[in-house]
Amino acid sequence: MSAVPHALVSPLPALAPYRLLVVNGNTTTALTGSLAAQAEIFFGDAARIHAVTAGFGPAYIASRAEAAISAHAVLELVEREAGQASAPFDACLLACFGEPGIGAVRERLGVPVVGMAEASIMTAMQRGDRYAIVTVGRRWPGMLREQIRQLGVASRCAGILALPGNALDYVSRSPESALQVSLALDAAVEQGADVVIVAGAALAGYLPSLPRLPDVPIIDSYRAALAQVLALASLERAQRLSLIR
Q: How many CA atoms lie within 13 A of 53 on its CB side?
C-alpha cells in the first residue's frame, strides 16, 4: 500500500479553548471571583472562562421571591454578554443551585446551558440509587422539592438537609461551618442516601475543607456542572466539525 503524498495530507486544525460563560445569579462579586478561579483550575488550558455577576437582586438567593428576581437579572445579563462578546460562547453555566431563569436562557441561547442542580442530580444518579442534598437555608428544602418534581427524579431522592444560617457565612470555610457540613453528610447517609450532593455556589469547592467524608460518593454540585458543561461543549464542537469534513 503506497504512502499518501505529504502534500495531500491535511493536518488537524489546532482546536481553540472552549469559551464558557459562567453566570453568578447572586450579586456577590467575591463569590463570582471564587467560582471563576475554581473553574480555571478545573479546566486548565481546555477552556477560557468569562464569569459575570447579576446586576441586581439578592446577595444570595434564599427564597422563591429572590429566585424570581434573579431569573430576570440572569436573563438580562446573559443576553447582554452574548450580544457584546467578541466571539460566540460554546456553552453557559448558571452557577446557582436554584438555576434562576434557566428555561428562558436556554430559549435565548443557541448553545448548551447547564445548571448546578440538574447536573449534580444526574451525576448522583449515575453513582448511586438514592441521592440526598445538603444545602444552606431553611426555605431551600421546599424549593428543591419543587425543582426535583419538575425534573421527574423525586423517587430517587432520600432527603434534603438544610444547614442553618446564611449561605455566604459558609464561604469562609471555618472549622465550625465545616463540622456542620460534615455532620449533615452523615445524617444524609443515615436517611438512606448512597450518594450525597453538597449543593450551592457558597459550598462550591468545600469538600477539601471537611474534617472527614462518609464512605459514599460525595458530589460537589459546582464541579458536576463544570464537568457537564465541558462535555456538552465538546459534543457540540465534535458535531460541527463532523458536518464540515
A: 17
